[in-house]
Automatic annotation (TrEMBL), chain B:
Residues 21-438 form the DUF112 domain. Keywords: Membrane, Transmembrane, Transmembrane helix. PANTHER family: TRICARBOXYLIC TRANSPORT PROTEIN. InterPro entries: DUF112_TM. Pfam families: TctA. It comes from the Bacteria. The keyword Transmembrane applies. The chain crosses the membrane at residues 20-41, 48-72, 109-132, 139-161, 167-186, 198-218, 324-343, 355-381, 387-407, 470-487. This is Tricarboxylic transport membrane protein. The keyword Nucleotide-binding does not apply.
Length: 185, 501
């Protein structure tokens, strides 16, 4: 058994505990009721999406049997959910910081369209490969952190891109495009 | 008994080859790594590595993936004890008393007990799997489509009963999961269902896309919105090895935890997730000083840690013997087996005994390695915890993107996973558990297939599910479990198990 370190100092950002949330403006925006509404919404949407499917078929099970029954069960469960939490004090769902997530989503989107190229009507994104797609994804998602340090992120992006290419393409042998515009694959 | 030893011997001869020991080691190492790092779980990791396994031989691939899964259970406890963040969902319980022990300067003792408990649990679970494999396989061979259908219904019901929080919400997640699995071309007729002619939906939603979206990207969105409070731990770790006296005091808890985990893990509805909670509740009830629980009681660490490790291992039983994955990780194992041309089910043990017993024996070897990886190297893992989240999550994003792209070779799937991440975030905000959704999704297609086959055999008569005694018994168990769960008195004690912890 080797020596355990004497003292550990884990340097992690300590976050302030968030203040208690104010109740939602309408009881329908409370978490539990919103959950019920989402179930009903999903059920109705699935009913609409699968409206063209035949209920019966050979052996009694048509393409539509399972989807439609499940949609109806989902709607019923949504109603039950609203009913059993009717008298509860509505609790807020807190922040929905979609704007903080946008850098991550943009990074993922750009990765998806640049790695092997994509057509948008007449506009064409060339196949840029991992050499471009990976740093885009890393750098843009990194911007989403509240405590982002640009210099550090840039260095990290370069290092991690090299590691990813070396690991996935060369060490693990996956056939991923690296930089078709430069080295042909 | 002799047969069990013989089988384990065969397994050891397969697992102890240099190549397989290497894969086992890599799996355990990666598993510990993702277990230690909060925000990356075994589900996302195995999804990323799935395309890599294509070039490996089947036994090595499965040994490695299994190592990631139980290795993550080990690693999760390290983060739970030292930083009070459960690195894995199953380490939630460990964090309660484990971190209190760390504050008292007993971090080493907590880590040591967790590792020793996990090792004992892993050893027992390996024997349990070996002993149950043959009878369970025989049972599996008796199953026709109707029995399989009922078994899956029972699994799904048990998943609802054993899930955290609201029963209605868990049930809704299962139903939504099965519904999502219906999207795409109907297996029987080829007819497109609920696709709106969107080309990336025609083949249905890939499970890896769903898993990486909800468990990979969704986790990141969740952490960006509500950063977890991280408790800085500045105490000494202290000695790692418990004294004989401490070991004796904890042996009961370890063995009880192991037993609970082994039993719950076998259930086809992800019982393993309940195991640490149940063990905590049991230890608290048996303790002379239950009021001390929550202030750093060693038994509250060793028991649950043993339970989650043995549960993780025995959850391979339903997959390997019946072909029914009991949780999301096992569903990915199905994927890994299918890539290699192996259909999971009772025939595996007969057709490829090397693979089956090799995998089982590798779990014991892996557990031995994990003790070595975890205890002496603890300083290394602590250093890893210093990697700030602002750098960790861009790396996770990159790995997920590359993993998704290499599976499908299609950028659209990457975008779909991003959308799934938003869905995962909404689920978190509305306090829906994603685990039952994943399970419903996984079993959905199999469920419909078996329903169809059963009804074709019976000429459309629904009574086939109750006239077969086996199927009827399974449905009865499901019905009883559900009835018991909605009974007010049982609901209360079920809630107690979770809130106790």
């Amino acid at each position: 058994m080797s020596q355990a370190p004497e003292i550990i100092q884990v340097d992690l950002p300590a976050h302030e505990p968030s203040p208690p949330l104010p109740p939602p403006s309408s009881p329908w925006l409370g978490r539990e009721r919103l959950a019920g509404l989402s179930l009903i919404g999903l059920g109705l949407f699935a009913l609409y999406a699968g409206a063209d499917l035949p209920f019966g078929g050979e052996g009694g099970v048509g393409s539509g049997l399972l989807p439609r029954s499940l949609s109806i069960i989902l709607i019923v469960l949504g109603l039950v959910q609203i009913a059993i939490t009717w008298k509860d004090r509505p609790e807020s769902t807190g922040r929905w910081p979609i704007r903080d997530m946008l850098p991550v989503l943009t990074g993922v989107f750009l990765f998806a369209i640049t790695i092997r190229g994509h057509h948008f009507g007449s506009f064409e994104v060339p196949a840029l490969g991992m050499a471009v797609a990976t740093p885009l994804a890393i750098f843009l998602s990194g911007l989403a952190a509240k405590d982002v340090r640009i210099g550090e992120l840039l260095v990290f992006t370069v290092i991690l891109t090299v590691v990813c290419v070396a690991l996935f393409r060369y060490a693990l042998g996956l056939s991923l495009p690296v930089a078709p515009w430069l080295i042909g694959y | 008994m002799m047969a069990v030893i013989e089988h384990l011997g065969l397994g050891l001869s397969v697992a102890a080859t240099l190549q397989n020991i290497f894969f086992c080691f890599i799996g355990c190492l990666i598993g510990t790594l993702v277990g230690v790092l909060p925000g990356v779980g075994p589900v996302a990791t195995i999804s990323i590595l799935l395309p890599v396994t294509l070039s490996l031989d089947p036994t090595g691939a499965l040994i490695m993936l299994a190592g990631i899964y139980y290795g993550a259970q080990y690693g999760g406890s390290t983060t739970a004890i030292l930083v009070n963040i459960p690195g894995e969902a199953t380490a939630v319980v460990t964090a309660i008393d484990g971190h209190e022990m760390a504050k008292k300067g007993q971090a080493g003792l907590a880590l040591g007990l967790a590792a020793i408990g996990s090792f004992i649990a892993g050893t027992v679970a390996t024997v349990v799997i070996a002993a149950l494999a043959t009878p369970m396989t025989r049972l599996g061979l008796l199953f026709g489509p109707a029995e399989y259908f009922s078994l899956m219904i029972m699994g799904l019901v048990l998943a609802v009963v054993l899930a955290h929080g609201s029963l209605v919400k868990a049930l809704a997640m299962i139903v939504a999961g099965v519904l999502l699995s219906c999207v795409g071309a109907d297996m029987e007729t080829g007819r497109e269902r609920m696709t709106f002619d969107i080309y990336m939906l025609t083949d249905g939603i890939e499970f890896t896309v769903l898993a990486m979206g909800i468990f990979g990207f969704g986790e990141i969105f969740k952490n960006l919105a509500d950063p977890e409070k991280r408790d800085v731990m500045r105490n000494k770790i202290g000695r790692l090895l418990p004294t004989l006296g401490e070991l004796r005091e904890n042996l009961g808890a370890i063995l009880r935890g192991t037993g609970l985990g082994s039993i719950l893990g076998v259930l086809p509805g992800n019982g393993a997730i309940l195991a640490p909670f149940a063990s905590y509740a049991l230890e608290k009830r048996l303790s002379d000083r239950p009021q001390d629980f929550g202030t750093g009681v060693p038994q509250a660490v060793s028991g649950p840690e043993s339970a989650n490790n043995s549960g993780a291992q025995t959850s391979f039983i339903p997959l390997l013997t019946l072909g029914i994955p009991p949780n999301a990780v096992m569903a990915l194992m199905v994927g890994a087996m299918m890539i290699q041309g192996i259909v999971p089910g009772p025939q595996v043990i007969q057709n490829s005994p090397d693979l089956f017993w090799g995998l089982v024996a590798s779990m014991w070897i892996g557990n031995l390695m994990l003790v070595v990886i975890n205890l002496p190297l603890i300083g290394l893992w602590v250093k890893l915890l210093k990697v700030p989240y602002r750098l960790l999550f861009p790396a996770i994003v990159a790995f997920c993107c590359i993993g998704l792209f290499s599976i499908s070779n299609d950028g659209a799937q990457v975008i779909m996973a991003g959308v799934m991440g938003l869905v995962g975030f909404a689920l978190y905000k509305l306090q829906f558990e994603p685990a039952p959704l994943a399970l419903g999704f996984v079993l959905g297609r199999l469920l419909e297939e078996k329903l169809r086959q059963a009804l074709i055999i019976s000429d459309g008569g629904m009574s086939t599910f109750v006239t077969s005694p086996l199927s009827a018994a399974l449905l009865l168990v499901a019905l009883m479990a559900l009835a018991v769960a909605v009974l007010p008195s049982m609901r209360k004690s079920r809630d107690e198990i979770f809130t106790d912890a």
